[in-house]
Amino acid sequence: MANDDIWRLSAAELAKLTRSGELSATEAVQSAIDRMHALNPALNAIVEDLSTEAQERARALDAQRARGEPTGPLHGVPVTIKVNVDQKGHATTNGVAALKDVIAPGDAPVVSNLLKAGAVVIGRTNTPEFSFRADTDNPLYGRTHNPWGRHISPGGSSGGAGVAVMTGMGALAHGNDIGGSLRFPAAANGAVTVKPGLGRVPAWNPSQTAERGLLAQLMSVQGLITRSAADLHLAMPSLIAPDPRDPFHVPLPWRMAEPDQQPRVAFTKNTFGYDLHPEVDKALDTARDALVDAGYIVDEIDPPNVFECGRLGYRALMGEVLTLMKADVEAAGSETIQRIFATYFQEFPPITGPDLIRALAQRSHHAREWSLFMEDYPLVLSPFLPQPFFRPDRDTEGSEGVHEVLGCAVYSYAMNFLGLPAACVPARLAELPNGRQPINVQIAAQRWCEDLAVDAAIAIEARVGRMTDHLWADLASTG
Predict the structure, then answer these.
(1) Which entry of 10, 24, 158, 181 is annotated as an active-site residue?
(2) Among 82, 131, 220, 382, which one carries the catalytic annotation?
(3) Of 114, 206, 299, 349, which is most buried with the most CB atoms under 10 A?
(4) How high is the pLDDT of residue 259?
(5) Are 138 and 160 in contact (CB under 8 A)?
(6) Per the UniProt record, which residue ranges are transmembrane (predicted)?
(7) Which one is catalytic: 31, 157, 158, 238?
(8) Closest-CA residue to 37 (of 15, 54, 16, 25)
(9) What is the dihedral of CA 443, 444, 446, 449, to 10 degrees?
(10) How distant, in Å, are the alpha carbons of 3, 12, 147, 162, 271 from that of 478?
């Protein structure tokens, strides 16, 4: 295979070839680096080029294999790491200029686990300031652009990750998600992800000087964005490996058990008064039909109240942010991010004081309702967003903009508050007046059952196809 084509391979395809010796780790990594150097200047997805150390690591992996040493499941697979997670010797900037010299003394668990599996980090990806926007732009690195066109935001906060993986700059992209930061970029770029449930992937930054707030601990998770749903089955077992630095990690296998039959799916189009765009409606129908054809039993039924749960969770998170982050945002944030946070507090009035304690207690009520519901319906197919993905900087346009970007995204942040896994997968390529763009749907899953959500995503992808087939053709035609 020509070096020019290696970057096109999925992580699963790459790993099969590198582990068998048909392809060297050096070749796999070099192809991704060449792709990065060709496309990244126009997209600004990767903000720290790690080509030199990536090539050295790839050569070391090839030498180890030549000596007959065991290869990991991700042997030679090129990956990217988001700049808000510690990677030894590199700055954990979180998109904030004031943090540009905060050099990580060690690797975060997610980085350690990827390296132990044989992956090779080729670069670090962009994030908005404080990783707290559903769009990706900041004064330190600048704006990341969506490869589908400038009419669509790249998503956030793992916007650089989503763009990188969809354009072939690495076969896997690390990201994280406190209210949708894996799923927003997946939806924006037509990628696939699964937001893991609480406790699934160990997390901690060696550079941190204080523990995160309780809701940040309960709602934030580490994960991967991919261009093929099957790559999640390949890579997530490595990501969930235990690390004692996370005392609340739950050491369970990726596959709990093979189901006797396909799980029942609750299917809902309920958008709680928000308009459901015709293209999102069609995407949901396609996803439902794909699951039915794959043998799932799909019932149209609403799950427990997502709107009430999601709004409560995000208002509680805003209360914690107001208490613990506001001073940092005012001291180190740009005028833009300060205005956005002020609008967040309008859209999601912060819950503070005794009411915040009550909101945390109420979380168990909502989680219990969902747990009982998922005894009968282990999967829930729903919209991710009720409308096609928004334009860049929409969240800078006052309350109306933030309402479109985050206010309507209750299916997203409700899953963080509940601690449940949720996959996000493209189910349609929409032809809209301002250009084409993918439409993703969400599949929430029973606790500890990320694998079931990924299985369902694979079934949908089998019907719809991979969005890269369309995107790469567009990129090739435009040069």
Answers:
(1) 181
(2) 82
(3) 114
(4) 73
(5) no
(6) none
(7) 157
(8) 54
(9) 60
(10) 21, 29, 11, 20, 37
Give the model's confidence band at 2: pLDDT under 50 very low, under 70 low, under 90 confident, else very high: low
pTM, to two decimals: 0.98
469: which 2 tokens? Answer: 């087939």
Residue of 373, 354, 84 whose CA lies nearest to 216: 84
* The residue type at 470: H
Complete domains list, the chain, with CATH: 3-478 (3.90.1300.10)
Q: Which residue has the tokens 């050096």?
A: 26
- Cα dihedral 451→241→223→371 (10° resolution): 50
Rg (CA), the chain: 21
Tokens 């896997």 label which residue? 172
Which two three-digit tokens encode residue 22? 């048909």
100 is catalytic: no
The string of pLDDT tens digits covering residues 150-175 is 999 999 999 999 999 999 999 999 99
Tallying the residues shown for the chain, one arrives at 479
Q: How confident is the model at residue 369 (pLDDT cuts 50, 70, 90)?
A: very high
User: Mind listing the pLDDT tens digit for each residue in 348-368?
Assistant: 999 999 999 999 999 999 999
Q: What is the pLDDT of residue 361?
A: 98
